[in-house]
Prior knowledge:
By secondary structure, the protein is α/β, with parallel strands linked by helices. The protein has four domains: 10-233, 5'-nuclease (Rossmann fold, 3-Layer(aba) Sandwich); 269-452, Nucleotidyltransferase, domain 5 (2-Layer Sandwich), CATH 3.30.420; 480-578, Taq DNA Polymerase, Chain T, domain 4, CATH 1.20.1060.10; 646-779, Orthogonal Bundle (DNA polymerase, domain 1). The chain is built from 34 helices and 23 strands.
Amino acid sequence: MTNDEGNSTQALFGFIRSINKLINDFSPTHLVAVFDGPDNKQSRQKVYAEYKMHRKKAPDDLYPQIELAYQYCELIGIPVLSVPGVEADDAMAAIALWGKENNYEVYLCTSDKDLFQLVGGSVYVLNVNKDNLIMDSEKVKEKYGVMPNQMLDLLAIMGDASDNIPGIPGFGPKTAATLLNQYGTLDGIYEHLEEISGKKKTTLEENKDLAYLSQQLATLNTDITIPQKETFYHLQMEPSAELEAFFRQMKFFTLLKEAPTTPVSQKTDYTIIYTESELISLFDKLEKEKQICIDTETTGLDPYQDTLVGIGLAIKPFEAFYIPTNADIPLATIVQQLKRLTENTSIGFVGHNIKFDCHVLARHKLYLKNIAFDTLLASYLLNPQNRRHNLDRLALEIFNYNKISYDSLTKEGRKTRSLDEVEIDRVGNYCCEDVDITLRLQKHFEKELKKHELWQLFTTIEMPLIHVLFEMEEKGIFIDTAWFKKLSEKLSTKLAGIQVKIFSLAGKEFNLNSPKQLSGVLYEDLNLPAPKKKGSSLSTAAAVLEKLAEDYEIVSLILDYRSVQKLLSTYVDTLPLQVNPKTHRIHATFNQSITATGRLSCQDPNLQNIPIRSEEGKEIRKGFIPEKQDWSYLAADYSQIELRLLAHFSEDPNLLTAFNQKEDIHRATAALIFGVDLDQVTPQMRYQAKAVNFGIIYGQGAFGLSEQLQIPMKEAAEFIKKYFSHYPQIEGYIQSCKEKADQTTLATTLFGRKRPIPDIHNNNPHIRAAAERLAINTPLQGTQADLIKMSMIKIQKEIEQLGLQGYMILQIHDELIFELPDEEIPIFSKFVKEIMQNIHTFKVPIIVDIAIGKNWGEC
């Protein structure tokens, strides 16, 4: 998370969300945020030089966020305390004792062990990270085995790794608690040392000084000056323009919506149409307009099966009309009147995510002939790095207007109702507000798109693509459910077999889906090399297990188990359930507004992610078949498109020559890197060269390449060095991408798509390096995305103009899939290839491979 200046904000956001949760859950009247004071460790470091010295330096991008946390507290009205030379824990302890003396209930919001020694009477620890767990004396005893007044000595014995308090070597929390329960205090333990025997006694004797040093380090210093007036701690959360401006600057629009800010009022004229005469009068008026904003309200989010509840229409700001379909006017009459508008090509329709409305209207044989503007796509083009472009957020962000929320209509306590169960006037106001805000956003975005030179991209690619995607989604894709049933049985048997082998190697049965149990089996029972510990158990993440898989059969089997299980749950068992009962096809959604590069994404289901190389993935693809007899699939695939674009952008002579002479680019690269003739390149050499070729596109360095190829980093660095020595202008291109991003904080495609990269100036080197990789990859991947979109638009026009029966059903990044009658295969093969290869002229030939099959797997 970053703000407009590219500064990190995720820690600040987390801090504010925690504070807000605390206030919402407990409604405190008094609150104070305590921060470490400057030079806060000095007093304890005089006693023990190693105190907290082991801690890694915090990330560079964290420190500015601490300053912003101060700023937020002041803006919202939360008192702040930071005492010079004093750690936050000491200041909190002093406040707690003062509060206790003055008969206040005090809650220390912390997870730090040292503050548990204060619990008792009216002082509690409130752990917001553990579901607001309130710790009293009994809870402390339950958790640590000792009472709060023994916590100081517990820390003296067991130490505290987070603060580098040494404690007694080899004495953990259980040993420490046992001794304290027997002898009461640290002094008591040493007074009765003769009663303790063996190694334990020797260790205690040898480390007495260390124990008392640890006790001194863990002792909270409450002899400090703190504000002692109740008014200082009073929480005064007031709405303010400054707080609103702060949230906007940080791009915290979720918080802005929740904040106690001053509401903006506006005068509107919203009308609900209840009679046929009002309806006809309205459409007589609308028929003369050149542009109409439209929005549909439905009983749910499935446009193929949910019911139309009403339609909103607007032609000028602050004025709107709502036509309920669940009132007195017959639906057939509403549809008949709407046809007057939808079939009029001189009327342009405006909407927010208008493709959804097109699907809803299509259920009633209503088709928008002229889609003029989509505010969701406009917002996306201007801010592709944002994942959210919903109307509520945009209204708040651009107009500072907090509009009616969907949840406020449909949720009553724990109950949820659909819109057809909500009062018509409430739904009407909500829908009118939607079309009104959308129309106002159009005026705003039109100016912004032109100002940022995105108007042509918007009007020539993104807007025309809506119709193409609508047609693809309406057509859907057919699957052989019987095939999937057989495949499910086959994979379930395979899964059971893998499980048996794993249990045999483990020597026992356990829950394979439990990371904790799996971790115990691998690292404790089988004593496999353990990764770095994170949290309470050792990691069993894929990246960790992949490193062990080559040496340990059980780990390889676990990865196989996960892979098969995922394919079963994600595709094999799920896809048949997603078949529409009315159309008998699956209707996935293609999103234009998700990826920052401009690529389309696919959801419900995501058909772009079905594995292409694994045998199971190929079997899944075989289950996608044409619905009709004597029909086939045709796949058109851009060959090595991003490498060809790299050659075009970099103008590297060796790369240009390789492509222009139709060489195998990976073989050519291998020959250059290894210094051998083309006919001497081995499959292994080609594989490594391919990894370098594609790694370069994604800004991969020596570390990433060494991980991928499982070779020493020195060897990987040598590969990259040789690569750049033979393709010198590629290195220049990469450097120019970084420099442009550094100067403009943008990456731009050949066709003008812009991706903001504010992180290019981030203080955190890891975040900055990731931004540099985006700066290299975005012009390539984004240009490829634009290219296939342009092809799709032209292909769809060709299909319609020729009156063909076949149609486009899928796009998988650089591949298009068509379902068509066999007699149309020659026609499609010819014009699809021609369009895709010639949609734009480049310095190298663009190659498209055509494949035909009776199922997707054969393509």
